[in-house]
Amino acid sequence: MGRQSWEVKAHHLTRALGVTWGQKHCVCLHVVGVASYIAT
After folding, report:
1. What separation in angstroms does the CA of 34 have from each of 3, 27, 28, 31?
2. Which UniProt keyword terms apply here (predicted)?
């Protein structure tokens, strides 16, 4: 049971990291898009 709870925690952690990384990735794309729009 201890291992199962650890796997659940690891799953939530990786999911949280994936969400935060996705948000940062979207922000980066948005900044690049705005910068390219201003440049043109």
Report:
1. 46, 10, 10, 5
2. Plasmid
- The residue written with tokens 């709870």 in the block is 5
**pTM for this predicted structure:** 0.41
Sign, CA torsion 27/33/36/37: negative
Q: What is the DSSP string of 1-40?
A: -HHHHHHHHHHHHHHHHHHHHHHHHHHHHHHHHHHHHHH-
Q: What is the largest CA-CA distance in the chain?
A: 58
